[in-house]
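WARN no homologs supplied; continuing
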Amino acid sequence: DGTIQGLFEILGVPYVGADVAASANCMDKERTKTLAAGAGIAVAPWVTLTALEQLSSRRPAIEALSTPWFVKPARAGSSVGVHKVASWDGLAAAVEDAFKFDTKVLVEQCLSGRELECAVLGLHRTPEASLPGEIIVSPEAGFYSYDAKYLSKDAARTEAPARLTTEQTHAVQTLATNAYQVLEVDGMARVDVFLTTEGVYLNEINTIPGFTPISMYPQMWEASGLAYDQLITRLLELAFERFPS
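OK structure emitted
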């Protein structure tokens, strides 16, 4: 969220990845969506809550969003505290749980489509996008929850590269690099998007994606012709390019 990056800045230590401001803005899903939407990048409609008591006053705005809704802490990861809610009756419990993980909670309209990811590499002035990958969630899992990510081996699978047309690939890559530039990310990011019948929508930007050899970020670059060791080298080169000794 920028705190460790700030420490490195104070100490004068080169580091891989986004700087203080970009890290903080990408960690905060409301800030990400606000900045992206302001730049003309499509995002799912949402309502922000800073207290459980706001539910009643924000009810008209929330009910204006199509159901189901996703309830999520604004500044958490790995789908911790995230719930998919079909009706108003289940909303209060989901919001209350999300507030256990943050002081700000988003109620977001669910987008029906494919869940895709794109790896972006480079300085924000000149980003490069990989071939996109896809998260395929089983109908039983419902969505890419914490359990689906880490606890159930059959709940979801990944595919890199995703099976897309040339036009779809270009649309995903264009949105990913645009979002990367708008949030002024340097080094690396995994940009998560939804591909719907209406177009491509930004979900979120992960500035420190998983980095084991089987994680999606290196997998997508591998599928794009950049091997794992070459990717590591390029990221280190970018860090020293930004922080020359």
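The longest strand covers residues 187-196.
OK
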